[in-house]
Structure formats: structure tokens, C-alpha cells
Write a structure and sequence with these properties.
Helix content is about 30%, strand content about 25%. The protein is an alpha+beta fold and about 500 residues long. The strands form 8 sheets. The chain has a 7-stranded mixed β-sheet. Strands 22-21-23-24-25 form a 5-stranded mixed β-sheet, sandwiched between helices. The protein has a 3-stranded antiparallel β-sheet with strand order 5-4-8. β9 and β10 form a beta hairpin. α2 crosses α11 and α3 crosses α9. The longest helix has 20 residues. It starts with 6 loop residues before the first helix and ends with a helix. The structure holds glycyl-adenosine-5'-phosphate. The site of glycyl-adenosine-5'-phosphate (GAP) has 21 residues, from β12, β15, β18 and α11. Glycyl-adenosine-5'-phosphate binds next to β12, β15, β18 and α11.
């Protein structure tokens, strides 16, 4: 029977086996920042590769981009982030710790079971209308401080800016206030024209990007689930207005199946549709793909959001482009300027699209599937983790999908003598050209199998006494632990077939 995984088990395995470390650990660690170790970087790269292959390479209607993290400050004015990308926080008057208002729990909620079907907390409050959010902020008198446990002793809710600021340029006079991007999406919107002008894409088409984003989150959470520096995989899919609902359904299905096809158990995955009062003001519809993470009592939490962003962003950037002169006149200070009004003929503006079959020009609508790479990596780790009893011993293993496994094949000589290491080394040198392999000759072979089980390695190849006589090796499969004998000249084909790579 599959064990119910606790986050502590995952954190401990990640540390022990070099998947994920606390950042700057030798200096006591930096809160909410993590480093991926030798196995972790392979796993995370495989998650990114699987996304890129599925969303970009296997399709004829999506191209990729890799944009800079630092962008012109007006990008963030136009996108709304400079003014609106905030969390609403309240400070506990007793311990002075600030908490996101939407994360505060009622005191009684601790003892009562959560109502069935209740969704997870809203992950992000992107572009909230600050005034409306403050007006809507509930009565906090029954809320409990998650830090000190005091009930109902909060300041009035206040907005807290989530973008990290930095300076560009060495000279005081001409240095410019910049922001670390809080999402990768805007790099795509501002390159929409470049992609149109340099490729043969025709609507409907998408532009995809994977990259780092930064948010000065008020509350970070649960290992790599919510951090201040993280990686996103985002697709902006441009389509003709009126076809947007069809594409929204298409991407919902595509993205949900991506997780299932990479081994996430169906019972741990669901959609959560955003209610009308929860939608960002630019969004016509939004749904989260949620995973049942093992935090606390087990909680459904957002893995990815799929939104119908309408024509909002391209229209906003047309306004941003019209604001450029004002920005120069104002010495590059964003605070004192308002975004220019939209042109009356905005439908034929610089970010419009000309459909030559229909002979018409319009601003496309956008469907955006936006996934967190670190968060999906955590979900893949949690879902793959298992413990089972084997001959009176506990076997910890990661039942990763083959495409995600950091190491595909472990190669061992049974003993460190009788020519076995040399033969095993030759096999290793050959196979590592095709798969990520690991050679190990230290300790009892049973121990070496267990180490690879814990790393999630799907196959182990062992060279033994019989190999020296008939050129066959054993191939052991991680999940079933079954072993078969394969001739060394068939080994590469056998593994390629089994791994389906
Ligand atoms: N462009 C839309 C956008 O950025 P979002 O829901 O704020 O939407 C998309 O972010 C995804 O990025 C989330 O579903 C989540 O997986 C990931 N994400 C957001 N904030 C994060 C954080 N602080 N730490 C880790 N992942 C985060």
C-alpha cells in the first residue's frame, strides 16, 4: 500500500541525498531560499525539459523565448505590477509579525474539520485593486496570529509591495530604479511584435518561456512551495477574440494531462475554478490545477494557473509605449506619472495583428497557462515518494516517471575484483553517451541498489561472475525489483526501449 507522505520525509530525503539544500547553509541559511544539489538539478532540469518538449517542441504552433530578468521600468507600469502587485497584510500588535490577510485563520477553525471541497487559500493576489481589497478585508477580530497565537490583535490591513527593487548603473546621476521581474509573462508580451516580424507564426500561436521570477512574499511556506526566488514556465497563447473560450478549454485539458502523463496520481490532482470575485480584473476566466500537498492535515494547493487574460496586456503595453516621452520628461521616475490613455484606434496599434485571410486587424486575446517549476518539482517528489517493507527492512524509494528520474541507470560490478570493475566501467562509458548514468563499486550490492532506489533510478545494471563467462548482465527494475539477464550487446537497446527515451 502506498504510504501517506509527510513533508518532513521529503525534506529529510532531499537533504540526505543531495536534492535540495538550504541556501547559504554554512552561514546559518537564508530563509525561503534553496539550492538544488546534484540530484535536484537533474530532476528540475528534467521537469523543465518535459514542459518544453510538451508545450513547445511537440507542437507546431508554439515558439520559445528567453528574456532578460531586468526590463524597462515602464513594462511594470503598463502591466499594473508597479501600482497593484501587492499583498494585503495585517501586523500582529503583540509580536509585530505581518501576515497576509487571506492567510489568517479563524481561531475555531483549528479544532473544526475543514468543510469538504473547500479550496486551498488563494495563492496570489496579483493586480488586486487595493481600495477594493481593503474595503473587502474582513473583520479580523476572530483571526489568530500564526506566529504568537494572539487572537484578534491586528492593525488595519495595508498593502505590501511584492516587487524587489534594485538600481541599474554605476553613476548616482543616471542610475535607474529597476525591478526584478515578478513573472516571466511580460517578457513575452513585449516581444510579441519581434516574434511576429521575425517568424512565420500566424494566429493562433503561442510564445513560451521558462525562467526565474522574484517576489518579496510576506509569508513563505513549506520548503520550496512558496519562495521569494522561483522559476516559472509560462505560455502566452494568442488567439482571435471569440475563439478564446475554445483555447482556454484546450489548454486546461493539455496542462492537466501533462501532470498525469508524468506520473502524478489522479486522486491528487484537481481543478479549482476561480469565483468571479476572485478573478484578476483583466481575466475573463481562471482555473488552478491543484495538487494535494502533504502540508499540515493535507491541503489542496495551486500548482499552476490557467487564465484567459483577454487583450489586456497587449493593450496595456500600447499605452505604455505612448507614455515613454512622459517618462523621459519625468527623469525616469515612475511614481509621478500616469499611464497614457488608450488611443481611439487601439485595435490597429503597434501590438495589433493583421489577419491576411480575413483582411482584418485586431488585438489578440491570450490564454495563459502559468506553472511553477519548483512547485511542480516538489509535487513530483511528493507523489513519487514511497516506503515499503522488504524482507524486514524499510525500503525508501522515489517512483519517478522515467523522463524525470535524475539518473536513468546505475552500473555496478558485483565485487571489486576478477575483472568486474573494468567490464562495468566499459559499460558505463558506453551508456553514459545516451543516458545519465552513475557508476558505483562501493559497499554491498544490496546497499547500492537501495541508494539508487532513494535517488529514483529506474534501472541498475550489475556485472557479476556470469558476465565474465557469457557476456550477460543483470538489469534490475526499481519498482518491482525484478531482475532479468541481458546480453551486453543488447543492453543499450533494452534500456532505451524500457526507458522510452
Ligand atoms: N503570469 C501569471 C502568474 O504569474 P501566478 O499564479 O502568480 O500567475 C504562476 O504564478 C505560478 O507560479 C503559480 O501557480 C506557482 O506555481 C508559481 N509561483 C507563484 N509564486 C510563487 C512563489 N512565491 N514560490 C514558488 N512558486 C510560485
Amino acid at each position: 500500500m502506498t504510504k501517506i507522505t509527510k513533508l518532513d520525509d521529503i525534506v529529510s530525503l532531499c537533504k540526505r541525498r543531495g536534492f535540495i539544500f538550504q541556501s547559504s547553509e554554512i552561514y546559518g541559511g537564508l530563509a525561503s531560499c534553496y539550492d538544488y544539489g546534484p540530484l535536484g538539478v537533474e530532476l528540475k532540469n528534467n521537469v523543465k525539459k518535459a514542459w518544453w518538449k510538451n508545450v513547445v517542441q511537440m507542437r507546431d504552433d508554439v515558439v520559445g523565448l528567453d528574456c532578460s530578468i531586468l526590463m524597462h521600468p515602464l513594462v511594470w507600469k503598463a502591466s499594473g505590477h508597479a501600482d497593484q502587485f501587492v499583498d494585503l497584510v495585517a501586523e500582529c500588535k503583540k509580536c509585530n509579525i505581518r501576515t497576509r490577510v487571506d492567510h489568517l485563520k479563524e481561531k475555531i477553525a483549528e479544532t473544526e474539520p475543514r468543510p469538504l471541497g473547500s479550496g486551498g487559500t488563494q495563492e496570489h493576489t496579483e493586480h488586486i485593486a487595493i481600495d477594493a481589497a481593503i474595503a473587502k478585508a474582513q473583520d479580523l477580530s476572530g483571526k489568530i496570529c500564526p506566529n504568537c497565537g494572539t487572537v484578534g490583535q491586528f492593525t488595519d490591513p495595508m498593502p505590501f509591495r511584492l516587487m524587489f527593487e534594485t538600481q541599474m548603473g554605476a553613476n548616482v546621476d543616471d542610475s535607474m530604479l529597476m525591478y526584478l521581474r515578478p513573472e516571466t509573462a511580460q517578457g513575452i508580451f513585449v516581444n510579441f511584435r519581434n516574434v511576429l516580424d521575425t517568424t512565420r507564426v500566424k494566429i493562433p500561436f503561442g510564445i513560451a518561456q521558462i525562467g526565474k521570477s522574484f517576489r518579496n512574499e510576506v509569508t513563505t511556506k513549506a520548503f520550496i512551495f512558496r519562495t521569494r526566488e522561483f522559476e516559472q514556465a509560462e505560455l502566452e497563447f494568442f488567439c482571435e477574440p471569440g475563439t478564446d473560450e475554445k483555447w482556454y478549454e484546450h489548454w486546461k485539458e493539455q496542462r492537466f494531462n501533462w501532470y498525469l502523463n508524468l506520473g502524478i496520481k489522479k486522486e491528487n490532482l484537481k481543478f479549482r475554478v476561480h469565483e468571479a470575485d476572485e478573478l484578476a480584473h483583466y481575466a475573463k476566466a481562471c482555473v488552478d490545477v491543484e495538487y494535494k500537498f502533504p502540508f499540515g492535515s493535507g491541503d489542496w494547493q495551486e500548482l499552476e494557473g490557467i487564465a484567459n487574460r483577454t487583450d489586456f496586456d497587449l493593450r496595456q503595453h500600447q499605452r505604455g509605449m505612448r507614455t515613454l516621452n512622459k517618462w523621459f520628461e519625468n527623469d525616469g521616475n515612475l511614481n509621478n506619472i500616469k499611464l497614457a490613455e488608450e488611443a481611439e484606434d487601439y485595435q490597429s496599434g503597434p501590438l495589433s495583428y493583421f489577419d491576411d485571410e480575413q483582411r482584418k486587424r485586431y488585438i489578440p486575446y491570450v490564454i495563459e497557462p502559468s506553472a511553477g517549476i519548483d512547485r511542480s518539482t516538489l509535487a513530483f517528489l511528493v507523489d513519487a515518494y514511497d516506503e515499503e517493507e522488504v524482507r524486514g527492512e524499510t525500503r525508501n524509494l522515489l517512483r519517478f516517471h522515467h523522463a524525470l528520474a535524475p539518473i536513468k541507470v546505475g552500473i555496478f560490478p558485483l565485487v571489486k575484483k576478477e575483472g568486474m570493475p573494468e567490464v562495468a566501467q566499459n559499460i558505463y562509458n558506453d551508456l553514459k553517451k545516451y543516458f545519465n548514468c552513475f557508476y558505483d563499486e562501493k559497499g554491498a550490492v544490496g546497499r547500492r541498489y537501495r541508494r539508487q532506489d532513494e535517488a529514483g533510478t529506474p534501472f541498475c545494471v550489475t556485472v557479476d561472475g556470469q558476465t565474465m563467462q557469457d557476456n550477460t548482465v543483470t538489469v534490475r527494475e526499481r519498482d518491482s525489483m525484478e531482475q532479468v539477464r541481458i546480453s551486453t550487446d543488447q543492453l543499450h537497446n533494452h534500456l532505451r526501449e524500457k526507458l522510452e527515451l
